[in-house]
Amino acid sequence: MVAGSGVFALNLITLTVIVFSAHLLLLRATKLQAYLPLAVCLISVGVVLSQPVLASLATPWRVSFLILSLPALMLIAPSFWCYVCGITAQSPWQFKQLSKVHFLPFAIAGVVALTALLMPSEIQYQLLVLGDDSLLTSLSTPMQWLVGGTLIVTFLLVIAWVIQSGYYVYQVVGRLHQYRRHLKDLFASTEEKEARWLTWLLLAIGVVWALTAISLLIDNLLFSFHFDGLISGAVTLVMVWSVALWGLRQKPGFEELYTSQMEVEQVLTSSEQQTKYQRSALSSEQANTIATKIEQAMQQDQLYLDSSLSLQKLASHIHTSPNYISQTLNESLGANFFDYVNRHRIEAAKQTLQQSNDTVVDIAMAVGFNAKSSFYTAFKKETQQTPSQYRKSVHVEAAN
């Protein structure tokens, strides 16, 4: 009894978080559509998780929501993928940009759900709630074929959901990797834009997805099997709360460039970048001139001290095309924008570490970093030492 009430309480709290968060996301989606897919994702999760609450508070709706949980299940992964596309998009994301093929499994599941909803209520209840298929023998042959076919397609869709989820996890990982590389071509500080919480969420989703898939397969193929309700309820609540919290806090990484004159798409990476540069009209003489301007902007004007410095700001400062600056950085100066600016910040930090007793955090903030962790990472990459180790080694050399 205690366990049952605990599961109910956790489920009710989770659904409350979902409803509240989805409402806030839908309000934001009126201005920026990137938030709409996450609202759809959370609502779909809510439909799938609604059974314990409906069993206690709204029994007549229980079977209908159980049937609707199939298309809702098929909607979770593609809507989450749309959200990731939205917050990593180079221009304001719109739903019409997405291929509708992503929602084909959802459409098929919708047809199956509609078929099940049109079946007699006693068949729905006995099959879905009681899990008793003995009534099939008492049905007419056409109804037996209809019910049996629906059950088979439902099972195949569950298998498809397992495959679909794995596919989208893979796609999201690749998308985030490419997005974070692109950020470093445009911004000198990327901590708040990288959406690292999505990486941790994906790890958690991967574990839960695997365990859920195993549970569903065993339950459908071998014997009745379910994870402890309290544990799964608590894990689900934590994950939903995390998605809601960070999803509401996360802004699209390129949002500040949406209204600027800069064409973000021009600043490409990897093989696309090389192809673009080969067609560029930038001569070696022009590149040298731009490189000199960039060096002056850093060494004389100390633009690196601006913690929000972006490629667009540098372009405005030296009156040069962002694409030409990016090409010059990569081909003439041998670094992307992020690494180049941080190199100057580290040089300034090294001087301060030698000449003052300021704390490492104070120095990090003074030279343009937004976070201690990013300062440590950049400093160690540049010097193979932590800031404290560097300061100590300098003092030892001075003493000798």
Automatic annotation (TrEMBL):
InterPro entries registered for this protein in UniProt: Homeodomain-like_sf, HTH_AraC, HTH_AraC-typ_CS, Tscrpt_reg_AraC-type_HTH
SUPFAM superfamilies: Homeodomain-like
Pfam families recorded: HTH_18 (PF12833)
Taxonomy, superkingdom: Bacteria
One term of GO molecular function: DNA-binding transcription factor activity
Transmembrane segments: 6-27, 34-54, 66-89, 101-123, 143-170, 197-218, 230-248
Keyword vocabulary terms for this entry: DNA-binding, Membrane, Transcription, Transcription regulation, Transmembrane, Transmembrane helix
Gene3D superfamilies xrefs: Homeodomain-like
Identification of the protein by name: AraC family transcriptional regulator
Stretches assigned to the HTH araC/xylS-type domain: 288-393
